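[step 3/7] fold_predict: job queued, chain A
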Amino acid sequence: MEESRSILKEYWGYDEFRPPQDQIIDAVIHKKDTIALLPTGGGKSICFQIPAMMFPGKTLVISPLIALMQDQVENLFVRGIIAKSLHSNLHYKEIDKILDNFMLGDLKILYISPERISSDVFIQRITKTKLSLIAVDEAHCISQWGYDFRPSYFNIPLLRDIHPSVPIIALTATATPKVLADIAEKLKLKTPAVFKKSFARDNLGLCVMHTDNKKQELIQILSRIKGSSIIYVRNRKETIEIAQWLTQYGITCATYHGGMEKSLREKNQQIWMSNQVRLMVSTNAFGMGIDKPDVKLVIHLDVAPSIEEYYQEAGRAGRDGKESYGVTLIDAADLEAARSGLNDQFPSLEIITSVYDRLCRYHKVAYGSGMMESYDFHILDFAEYVALPVKKVYHILNILEKEGWVTFSDAFKEPSRLMILADQEELEFLHRNPSLKSKILVHLLRKYEGLFLDPVKIDDPRVAQEMNIEELQLAHYLHIMKSEGIIAYYPRASEPQITFTRERPTQDSFYIDKKSYLQRKKMAEDRLNGMTSYLQNEQKCRQKLIIEYFGEKGQDCGKCDICLGASETTISKDQIRKVLEHLSNILVQNTIDVKTYASIYPFNKRRRIIRVIKDFESEGLIRVDNLGNITLAGK
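[step 4/7] structure written:
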């Protein structure tokens, strides 16, 4: 282990490993198949990066996200370690060059997506490459029991067939015992060494607040808990709305979501990492590979789809070991919205069959034909054709792609994006001088939100159709406005396309693995039920509930809202007297309602305060009207 410690010191600047990193690395360098279950912030990447530098051959890393791969490659580059990643944004000549360098040159670590393994070009090169290690990051993606199942992970065992003696290390931050067993089986691991770090976080206080005024609670929390923070929401529109609203209160914010231009995402990430802004308001696209130790607070404003995802996100607080907090704010509609969202993701098999049939008709694909044929494809037009909401159509198309019936070009997933750079004065000048240019801007502003904040995805053909102009004419004026500095415009690289990967069957021959599909739906429901139980829990220590979910035995943390008495309703006589004096003093000068008064107190005391107010009312000391407004009994 001396060599590994020497590398750790030289390249990472640390004297010692964090347990159980040293044991994992020792198992890997002794060429044992290994599973490493390390919670968020546990330092998973070092467990394969250091062995990669010690082995004579090459290390192949499989990762599901381009952003995650690029973050790790950049972090290695900063430390003077050369690594590369293969992703869809590269030209095929660049891919060839990287693969040649990995096979024959000095490139030691190569990151790829699991989809890459199905490429003949890749297989030809990797067969001839002297591999010493295969690392599978986010390994839970191979398990149908896991929260982020990716069928493309089933490609990975092919690497084991090609290089049967090369050890595999599978890494994940969140996995139940059932998922760990599935990882070992699906990756064909040979009696793997399994290392787990406890999910318990002594410095993390968890809290769930049920409220009908999230914004008010948000301001109160941020005023009480200072320091670098993350707010997680579940859609891109919310990131902009929340950031705009908080900025009005003097709270510095950056936003992050998957639809942003890469350079803007990187800029926002950097200003947050360097503490130039306090808050990152983000979807779950943010956080993978981000190691910021001083995050004090993580707030969820929506229901996460599973405890796995929730705890991974909340666990980004307090990596420096100092006191930190994970707070969830939910209202009555959130649980219903989460359930509705799950139903949208798993439509009935009859609807999927119908949409596939109409997809074939839409492109005039005849029965028994269509295999590997490609067509231009615009989802909004197709959604109108099938008379279904765009979001629902998107989920169905995603299912059809996962089931191997169709594939989509990058342009389908990355359409044109546009952002307005002009200030109000320039826009007023355009408005005073009506032209097609100004009409286009007005139309865009009415149709799309957030154009002044981020590059927003736009549908060029639809905009042209709605304005009754040619698409080429629209593009011409958008390019003119770009050259004049009025807008930032990033046109799609090509027409979005759909490719049919099989011949069109007769409608009664169309097939989706019903058992597998319904099993995935049931598991998603079970995970959401687990999350719902956590949010509605009023008796059990929150951290204990979570770590037991992951198969550990736990103790009360003493830090969560339940341990601090949030569900208690009893209060001492001296405290009752002080509450009455305080409430009376307020009511002499102002009116106040029950919820507003209770919100003055820390969250773990509010239930007791509401109980005391009810007691005051029953004793005739105060009156509470139907709207919850409080008045002194004598007034």
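[step 5/7] annotate
The chain has five domains: 2-196, 204-338+537-549, 346-413+497-523, 417-490, 573-632.
The longest strand covers residues 204-210.
exit 0
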